[in-house]
TrEMBL record:
It comes from Tetracentron sinense. SUPFAM superfamilies: Phosphoglycerate mutase-like (SSF53254). This is Phosphoglycerate mutase-like protein AT74H. SMART domains: PGAM (SM00855). Substrate binds at R94, H95, G96, Q97, S98, E99, G100, N101, R155, K194. PROSITE patterns: PG_MUTASE (PS00175). One of its GO terms (molecular function) is catalytic activity. Signal peptide: none annotated. The active site is at H95 (tele-phosphohistidine intermediate), E183 (proton donor/acceptor). It comes from the Eukaryota.
Amino acid sequence: MANSLSLLPRHSLSFSLLCSISKPMASISLILTPPSSLPLSFHKLSTRCCEDTLGRPRVTRIASDNGLSFPEKSPLVTPATALPPRPRRIILVRHGQSEGNVDESVYTKVADPKIGLTEKGLVEAEECGKRIRELIERDGADDWKVYFYVSPYKRTLETLRGLGKAFEPSRIAGVREEPRLREQDFGNFQDREKMRFEKAVRIRYGRFFYRFPNGESAADVYDRITGFRETLRADIDIGRFQPPGERNPNMNLVIVSHGLTLRVFLMRWYKWTVEQFEGLNNFGNGSTVVMQTGYGGRYSLLVHHTPEELKEFGLTEEMLVDQNWQKFARPGELNYDWLTAGPSFFTHFVSEDNKDLS
């Protein structure tokens, strides 16, 4: 079968090709369509940002409350170029003394999430709240507020209530219960003697990687704390805890959690190595570690704490040097001299430096 196709000027006609296949021969038919009869969308292959696909102006809808319910979503309230002010502090609080801290046999008959505070622990929580308030008031600002993140365990919730007694309702910007801040899982109800054996094995195996049977390792806690950290950073970037329409620079975040969980949080935030983590000591019950903004806006432990306090906590000289860098650096900057930046993982640089000296 012979087919012929007449060439037509492109500017006068457009065509669509329809193929129909039949046995045993294939035939091709052309349907020529004048440009005037084609739909508008065929001619208009591109649209502008302010038009829809048919070239009509887009309608911009603004919420009836002018975006005050979600200020981060309204360019009229919060321009994309103006980030909310960072909270002045992130205050880490370990729960007060719990029944399990006094008597380990409690873990054999009471679920870990349901273990509460002792009378001493309740007092520790209230005293901790007073110290936090005194710390904040030393800034001299009148519009300061606190926002809490808390583990859902009974002892941390009771600690939260104790802390809250130091603040009027107008000072509390909000509270979020956060399951990722829970205690390391040790495996449901615990066998007292078996747990003592497991903790002894953990010392030999390594505190970070040892996983308790039916429970978690510190490495597992690290994974979920990484997720929480990203949530926290997003909350900070969009000012999630700020009251609608406000941009308060005197906000203070308080994280109420557990000893190992808080140490892992610090490890994740400051990118400490496993070896550095394993050299840290636990928080005392009802005690705090304060991350405070330095001169450039980054959070440093050396703004509030002394080097001696941080050494007692377990920070090495290299970690203190980095904290001093954090004290002056700005968000987004990298400390290329930091121990974990790269060169410290390689040994051949040392030999090359020695060659240069010789």
